[in-house]
Amino acid sequence: MTDTTLDQTTAKAPATPAALLWTVVAGSVATAASTFLSWTWTTAFPGNLTIYGNPAPLQLLTLVGAVLTGLYALSALGIKGLGWLAPTGTRKPLWLLALGTFATTLFTAISIIVELGALVDLEPGAGVAVVAAAVPAVAAYKLPDDSRKASPAKRLPSWAEVLIIVGVFALGLFVVTFGIDTDDAEPQLFIAYLILVGCSVTALVKSGLTARLAQITARNRQVTITASLVMAIAFPFIQQSGDTYTLIAVNILIFATVALGLNIVVGLAGLLDLGYVAFLGVGAYTAALVSGATSSAFGVQFPFWAAALTGMAASLVFGVVIGAPTLRLRGDYLAIVTLGFGEIFRIAMGNLDGTSGPQITNGPNGIPNIPQLEFFGYNFGEPHTVLGVELGAYANYYLLMILIMALVVVVFSRAGNSRIGRAWVAIREDETAATAMGINGFRVKLVAFALGAALAGLAGTVQAHVNTTVVPENYVFAGPVPPNSAFLLAAVILGGMGTISGPIVGSALLFLIPAKLQFLQDYQLLGFGIALILLMRFRPEGLIANKRAQLEFHENDDDQLAVPEPRQSAEAGAQADGTAKAGA
User: Fold this and answer.
1) What is the pTM of this model?
2) 568: Cβ–Cβ under 8 A, 6 or more apart, which residues?
3) Residues with Cβ within 8 Å of residue 143, at least 6 apart in sequence
């Protein structure tokens, strides 16, 4: 009787209404066409949206959103060759894409009205775009939910998987470059970019496409690492505006390197450190003092490799000295002590001015005129022509930070997968149980603290040369400009604790967004707080979370429709056979 009822319920499940889907397609086509019209009559609005037949960057965002929405609607209609777009269902990603396109278009129209001061400043093309973009959003919202478990994907040939990986990384490089290269005089473009990218990435996650891509990259790990490294190195070579935006990329890499070091302390070992930026400052001050700065109290000039090792060693020593008496504390008590250490460091650097203390750091004035790096005769402060492209000073430092980032990633990966890495995770999950199993909790935590401090010190040595000056105000607990301890901790939590790519993504977002939204001034931290609240509500495990965190936060969530890998399925079958034999 129950089986019959279930069969009837399944048979009566409503199919996806074709009329609504064709409405989405028609609205997407109309939205795409509207981007070739003029949206305003004057060039006073940033971006020049007055030209017919040639979409401006703001209009291109609407065009891309409309195309993606139309493709997913056609996929839901069963068009051959598009089924791979949504392994776990089309309704949620389709609605997110339609909503993102409408929000981007509506934001642009409202920005025109606010910037120019009147509704009449809109051309008919803008009105057509807003109405046309609203149609797919409403129609997609009314679609029934078709979420399903993703069926096992057919294994593609190796060459096809390699092409997919290369294509995805090339597309990612283009998207990231577009966001970084947005003109600071056009904040509307960057905000619209954030809206569309946020909705699109969420849609891809909901569609199950990112999970399929993760399986492909896991099977081709070496190709994935090589492609990511090549795309990262290619960034300065495709910059048409020289070093204008490469400096942002350099600071993002410095920020991400420090965040990875903090991820060892917080993400792997589970130690809440609120003064971690002080280790970055120790490395920066050490490098400034030994690199031949004119105001250095030591009067020495080490080569870069020696200055880097000195900065790492100084940060490591400070990590051990601070960690040894404090790591026996737990939770809030440890957080308060580390917060105090961060403030003590900043105040001490401001007092070592020859009046309040010894003349070492020049007090609040800091150490200016730090010379440019010179490594084996290669001066990082001078432009160099590489492969026919002239690379400026910041491009040189960018490539250096790529190498340092690769080194830090290797250290993090090896340490996390080692015996001591497993001990860190055990301590994080339950220190009492780990101690009962023979793990020396204090020693393990001290190693994590020291290693994280050393990585931060390494990043600090490069930061000192990039900024050419070091001042105490750069190393505060919280402020509107990263890196500071609050932003570092937020980058780890936002990106995903215990992962490699998570803190990198979190750091990129937390540095790029404030840098591009400087026009908000005092409202930056308000927007930042609202964004963190929304993230903790809808994505508490972080943007790129490990499997353990996903299971903990979404244990009873129906959206977790992951399909086990063949190896996992085989292991499950073997366990089932063993259980059956034992029962027999």
Assistant:
1) 0.80
2) none
3) 16, 17, 20, 21, 76, 91, 94, 95
